[in-house]
Structures are given as C-alpha cells and as structure tokens.
Specification:
mainly alpha
C-alpha cells in the first residue's frame, strides 16, 4: 500500500515540473505568464523560442507522462494505481504549485500517459502528432491528429477498451481546460 502512495506522489510531483516555463525562463529569459496568451504551455513557448523549444518542452512533458505510468506499472499490478498515476501526472501539470497552480493544459503529458498505456499505438500517435505539429505549427490541431491516430491504432491493435476510454477522457479533459482558458481570457479581455 505504501509503495502505491509513493507511485502516486511521484506522478503528481513529476507532472508539476513546468518544462515549457523553465525553458522560456532560463533559456530565453521570458516568463511565459507575462507574454502571448499568458499560459505556460508549449503553444505560448512557440512564440518565444520557436519550434526547437517547443519540441524540447513537448518531449520532456511526454516523457514525464510516460514515466509516471511506467513507474506505477513497474511497482504495482493494481490497474487503479496505474490509471490514477496517469491522472495525477496531468493534474500536476495543470496545477503546479510552483506556478501558483496555473500550469499548462495537460495534453503533452496525457500523450505520454497514452503512449505508456499503448506502446504501439503510442508510436503511431507520436509520429502523426509530430508531423502535424511540424506542418501546421499549431499545437491544438497536432494534438487532435495524434489522438485520432491513437484511437484508431489502439482499437485495432490492442483492443483494451477500458484503457482506451480512459485515454480519450484524459484528452477530453485537456480540451475542456483549453476551452475554459480561452473563455476566461476572452471575458477578461472584453
């Protein structure tokens, strides 16, 4: 039981590491909360550091999501703990205490969680998402393309519908956060 709690705490703390903000602040000298859309995610980092910075931050966020699930999987066979670790890494990303609980939207660590849950489909998702990001240079459509790839490949290759439903719900919650953030920004601006 104690080891399960450790796995969940590791997931929460790992999720709370704000890689986009850290890159923006220490590499470019910019606090992402003060520029662009005032979010600390990779979409705002794109305007500050360009595509190389976005790719670096995204990879780090993906890895923290995947690592949280991998660690939980390695130390327990309890599916509830594994799934909860996936949720907590995203919660930590969205609400990092180091940034007054105002973090990113959670899509990149959610992709990492899905990759850890579905390794084969995760590779397809990463490939499609990367191509979409590099061609469109917009994070939201790239994430949408990645999620579609995940669902299609995971459904046919894996068939674990409960984990697939969990992954889709994780992405929907990241999308809901995006919508709420945009509505709040619109309300504050007008």
């Amino acid at each position: 039981m104690a080891i399960n709690v450790v796995a969940l705490l590791v997931a929460l703390v790992a999720g709370s590491i704000p890689f986009s903000w850290l890159l923006g602040y220490f590499r470019y000298g910019v606090d992402l909360r003060t520029v662009g859309d005032h979010h600390v995610g990779s979409g705002n980092l794109l305007h500050v550091g360009g595509m190389p910075a976005v790719l670096a931050a995204t990879v780090l966020d993906l890895l923290k999501g995947a690592a949280a699930v991998a660690i939980a999987t390695a130390i327990t066979s309890d599916e509830w703990v594994v799934i909860t670790a996936g949720v907590l890494v995203v919660v930590g990303h969205v609400f990092p205490p180091w940034l007054s609980f105002k973090g990113g939207r959670g899509a990149a660590p959610a992709i990492g969680v899905a990759w850890a849950l579905f390794p084969l489909a995760g590779l397809a998702m990463l490939g499609v998402g990367l191509v979409a990001l590099l061609t469109m240079r917009r994070t939201v459509p790239a994430i949408a393309a990645a999620v579609v790839a995940l669902v299609v490949v995971a459904y046919f290759a894996d068939g674990d519908l409960s984990r697939l439903l969990f992954s889709v719900l994780l992405f929907i919650s990241a999308g809901v956060k995006d919508v709420i953030d945009r509505l709040l920004a619109r309300r504050a601006g007008g």
